[in-house]
Amino acid sequence: MAVSTRPLGRSGIAVSALGMGCWAIGGPWAEGSRPLGWGAVDDDESIRAVRRALDLGVTLFDTADTYGAGHGERILGRALAGRRDEAVIATKWGYTFDERTRQATGEDASPEYLRRAVVDSLRRLGTDRIDLYQLHLADLPVPRAEALIGALEDLVADGLVRAYGWSTDRADRAAAFAQVARGAAAVQHGLSVLRDAPAMLAVCEKHDLASVARGPLGMGLLTGKYTPESTLPRDDVRGTAPNWLEWFRSGRPAPEWLRRVAAVRGALTADGRTLAQGALGWIWARSGRAVPIPGARTVAQVEENAAALDRGPLAPDQFAEVERQLAALRAAALRDADRPHWPMPPVPAARP
After folding, report:
1. pTM, full prediction
2. For residue 310, what are the domain limits?
3. For position 126, which CATH number holds?
4. Which of 22, 157, 161, 225 is the 20 to 30 A CA-CA neighbour of 251?
């Protein structure tokens, strides 16, 4: 059954059930010599991809001021020129950067920086409001996050921001923030068939928040194009694979994650979907609050992802088969836990 829109938490904003992640269209930027982008990008193709997404019913576009050190917001703004009212723009703040050198320079969680950052994002995006403004500092202590609520509420009152949220994988922090932040509408967090997030989804349900699901395709692993022999270029963040990036190691797909992809491929594609479309359908079946935001930088990628909207959530029996395959994989990992040649990342034992 097709799926078209979902509520953006308690904001009153409706968004397409599928968003477009805009990290990759930011192009290159780095922290010192370590790349933080996805390599070279064709800005004209990025603009075509955004506009094609709009044509196909995708309305939510998620970016951050730091993507490409400001370049990502500029490209998104150019793509939406003349069509701004068709889109819901989500961006983030918290990391500092130098636009001229395209270098990450640190972070700033002060209310003063927040006020400067939103004005800069509005200018780069070429718009008069941001629909969802998200704190990008995932591990910020709760008292420091709560200290930003007053400034965020002022931005809402001034009409510069419609709703706000936090990009974090810490369910306890998201819950504490949502309890006191009346304008909070969403939490952005990792969620995919490869890595479930039951605690965060429970927080979203309890506090009426949207689950903006980042990494729904495992940074490309769930597109099916990677093999154990695949090598990512050195100018791609996946090619250097910092410690926080679990899907790749030494410039190659991590074998334990490729095994997990292989285990669920048959169930995800059983009804004729592509692997990526099945992975998106799993997320919609997993939670009625989840809005996956797969990254894309070409028209072809957008078209494949958007076609999943017509397919909708996985059918109950198909979802159950995916769960059976994952349970079998967990059991095999437990049996082989004493074999160091086959490391296995933890898998949540149950899904509520």
Report:
1. 0.94
2. 5-220+281-314
3. 3.20.20.100
4. 22
